[in-house]
Write a structure and sequence with these properties.
Number of domains: 2
Protein name: NAD(P)H-binding protein
Pfam family, one: NAD_binding_10
CATH architecture of the largest domain: 3-Layer(aba) Sandwich
Strand order of the largest sheet: 3-2-1-4-5-6-9
Shape: globular
Helix content: 40-55%
Oligomer: single chain
CATH class of the largest domain: Alpha Beta
Length: 289
């Protein structure tokens, strides 16, 4: 890796942003950790940043030469705020950007797909990370994790469809390389774990790793949509989109693995068993007085 200037990490308190900021700081890079509350991050300078408040953008990007971009959560058209920010960042001296997108979204697709498509025309140095679904969905604050803790069940409309679930630590490791290597990837990188797993497999492995019985309850598209709206309070349009994403998994859209993590980091990606064991041990340690 080459010595760098200063990296702005947008979403520095989130699942991948926090891990990326921590890894950059641990490696000796200067980091500006951006969040809406300017939450302190060890080894980084905390700055306030709100995608919907352009007044926060100038101070956040000042003095930086690269940026890790996490789109605003739940926004169906993030390009409306992200592209003006990127143009401003380029003028301020940013020369490299790494965008967090999704394996389900290609360039020109919905949500971050529009930013992905525009990024090469805005900056010469760039990469788009397209991770599969996070393993941390089953251990953190995601609805699946809450359902496991409360009822010992995972509810999906994925049937027997498989997903190359990926560890957020592996995403962050790739992000650090994309941000700091001598040459930016200049492409999109699909990130997965070492194997594609069905949700039945997820339930089984979680049970084996923790000793807590977990089952996968298969729902129809309509049942999942209604459950998300009624129980989780998710707006009907967004709930329908989430249910449709499950249906695409059932149809095989996420049944793949890539060598990207090992190719860029020099080590294999973590298994789901490793991640569940690690994350539950962390949670147990944090809960002790």
């Amino acid at each position: 890796m080459t010595a760098t200037g200063t990296t702005l990490v947008v979403g520095a308190t989130g699942t991948t942003g926090s891990r990326t900021a921590a890894r950059l700081a641990a490696a000796g890079h200067r980091v500006r950790a951006a969040s809406r509350r300017a939450t302190p991050v060890p080894g980084a300078t905390a700055v306030r940043f709100d995608w919907y408040d352009p007044a926060t953008h100038g101070d956040a990007v000042a003095g930086t030469d690269r940026v890790y971009l996490v789109p605003p959560v739940g926004d169906p058209d993030p390009a409306a705020v992200m592209l003006p920010f990127l143009a401003r960042a380029r003028t301020a001296g940013v020369r490299r950007a790494v965008l967090l997108s999704s394996s389900a979204t290609a360039a020109g697709g919905p949500a971050a797909g529009a930013v992905h498509e525009a990024l090469p025309g805005l900056l010469d140095e760039w990469a788009v990370l397209r991770p599969s679904w996070f393993m941390q969905n089953f251990t953190g604050t995601h609805a699946h994790a809450a359902s496991i803790r409360e009822d010992g069940v995972v509810l999906t409309a994925t049937g027997s469809g498989r997903v190359g679930f990926v560890d957020a630590e592996d995403i962050a490791a790739v992000a650090v390389h994309a941000l700091t290597d001598d040459r930016a990837p200049g492409t999109d990188l699909v990130l997965t774990g070492p194997e594609a797993l069905a949700y039945d497999d997820i339930a089984r492995i979680y049970t084996e790793a923790t000793g807590r019985p977990v089952t996968h309850r298969r729902l129809t598209h309509g049942q999942l949509r209604d459950h998300l709206t009624r129980t989780a309070g998710i707006p009907a349009e967004f709930a329908a989109m989430l249910a449709t994403m499950d249906r695409t998994i059932a149809e095989g859209a996420e049944d793949r693995v890539t060598d990207t993590v090992e190719r860029l980091t020099g080590r294999p990606p973590h298994t789901f068993h490793e991640v569940v064991t690690r994350e539950t041990a962390r949670s147990a340690g944090a809960a002790r007085p």
